[in-house]
Amino acid sequence: MAPPAAMEETAPTINLLSNINDGNNAASQISRVTVVGSGNWGSVAAKLIASNTLKLASFHDEVRMWVFEETLPTGQKLTEVINQTNENVKYLPGIKLGKNVVADPDLDNAVRDAKMLVFVTPHQFMDGICKRLVGKLKEDVVAISLIKGMEVKMEGPHMISTLISEQLRVNCCVLMGANIANEIAVEKFSEATVGYRENREVAEKWVRLFSTPYFVVTPVQDVEGVELCGTLKNVVALAAGFVDGLEMGNNTKAAIMRIGLREMRAFSKLLFSSVKDSTFFESCGVADLITTCLGGRNRRVAEAFAKNGGKRSFDELEAEMLQGQKLQGVSTAREVYEVLRHRGWLELFPLFATVHEISAGRLPPSAIVEYSEHKPNCSLV
Ligand SMILES: NC(=O)c1ccc[n+]([C@@H]2O[C@H](COP(=O)([O-])OP(=O)(O)OC[C@H]3O[C@@H](n4cnc5c(N)ncnc54)[C@H](O)[C@@H]3O)[C@@H](O)[C@H]2O)c1
Fold this sequence. Notes:
- Belongs to the NAD-dependent glycerol-3-phosphate dehydrogenase family.
- Keywords: NAD, Oxidoreductase.
- The two termini are 37 Å apart.
- This protein is an alpha/beta fold and 381 residues long.
- The protein has two domains: 8-223, 3-Layer(aba) Sandwich (Rossmann fold), CATH 3.40.50.720; 235-369, Orthogonal Bundle (N-(1-d-carboxylethyl)-l-norvaline Dehydrogenase, domain 2), CATH 1.10.1040.10.
- The strands form two sheets. An eight-stranded mixed β-sheet has the order 3-2-1-4-5-8-9-10, with helices on both faces. It has a two-stranded antiparallel sheet with strand order 6-7.
- The model is unreliable at 1-25 (pLDDT under 50).
- The protein has helices spanning 40-53, 78-85, 107-111, 126-133, 160-168, 181-185, 200-210, 223-245, 250-271, 283-295, 297-307, 314-322, 329-343, 350-359, and strands spanning 31-36, 59-66, 101-104, 116-119, 142-145, 150-153, 156-159, 171-176, 190-195, 215-220.
- The protein binds nicotinamide-adenine-dinucleotide.
């Protein structure tokens, strides 16, 4: 399928798809890439990147992938199996990553020579990972976060890209989009959005690293907007899963998605006045919301939760249904709830608040459509 014409505001300035030699041959300019994380999306990201580093002269062929080491039921180490079979047999079975992907269980070693760091772990591990990396990076390293989620501290919410750029003192972009990893693994066409702060040149380098004919990446100057879209849509996906579990039908699900998108935009803009409305029309916005509410793991586990009348906890269902993969929506719903409570905004965001109340077991799943008495303040939301 041919990629659609990019929108005027966000059009990349270079030909991204036929750039076999990108004209930057100086050895000192060649960037080594390390992917920090090796779950389902981390493995697919490494595969995408590795196909491009072989083609583009400005990147070193080898892609290191830091693996949180695990012992498989066979007794073998996961990294050893990845390096022998070229497959992440636990998190992405059946897909070859590319011979130039090297799994490394040693975090310090994996990042030592990297100039470009791709962070893609479940968000709860990032604080610890950043602490371990302080002082270990090369100068002029740039980073990108593919992580959906945020940290909530006393002083307020902290985006993961901010955590990375503050702790490691690096420029950190974000990449988010309608990207269910297993579909991209088999090279089905999709799009993604790179959010950047000021440095367009760095953003375009990330776009080059990730773009393929089946994965079309568009840069937008709105880190917080892109990252909040990717983070908050998991909360809406839980609501969509409750609706599915209760067999409420498509109209209800569409209504939940619309209300959810409105709350996503309002919450993002209240937190960061710089967030742009146009970001919600990019892949990271409405497209990611749709795919996650139709097919993602948050929706699937929330459906099971509602089918069980809320009697089996999310922790139990996650362990049973996801085999080591992590659910982000439940912790994000709790973190969002903390922000809303702390700032006195609970009644402005009835969908977000209700999703947390249900997943914490304080309301039944059917409450997902029973909050209309708390009408949102339309001037804000
Ligand atoms: N899977 C998708 O379709 C998808 C798509 C887009 C974005 N994302 C986002 O990408 C991020 C990573 O998700 P994923 O799907 O690659 O992971 P995953 O849920 O498939 O796998 C969990 C990963 O966490 C690792 N892990 C477990 N304990 C750890 C620890 N203590 N420290 C560090 N790592 C540990 C595991 O080894 C494994 O690699 C998440 O923020 C997710 O929201 C996922």
